[in-house]
Specification:
Radius of gyration: 12 Å
Number of strands: 0
Number of domains: 1
Strand content: under 5%
Structural class: mainly alpha
Number of helices: 4
Order of helices and strands: HHHH
Helix content: 40-55%
Distance between the termini: 14 Å
Largest sheet: none
Amino acid sequence: MEDYPGFDAAMLIRLANTRMPFGKYAGRLLIDLPEAYVVWFSHQGYPRGEIGELLASLYVIKENGLEALVRPLVGMKG
């Protein structure tokens, strides 16, 4: 996607296929996390590392109703 500087298609594929590694929803795909849980992280703070970055991106996606753009990426390999 060279027409969109800063766009990271591989990150969206990781987001669509990464499972929550801990907590109440451990094992669930991030894209399937309840919006309230993702909002909670936005208020409490995201974990360090890639999972935190993915959750922060997921928050923006869910907040703007863009889940339908990510869901088709489930099952794709990046």
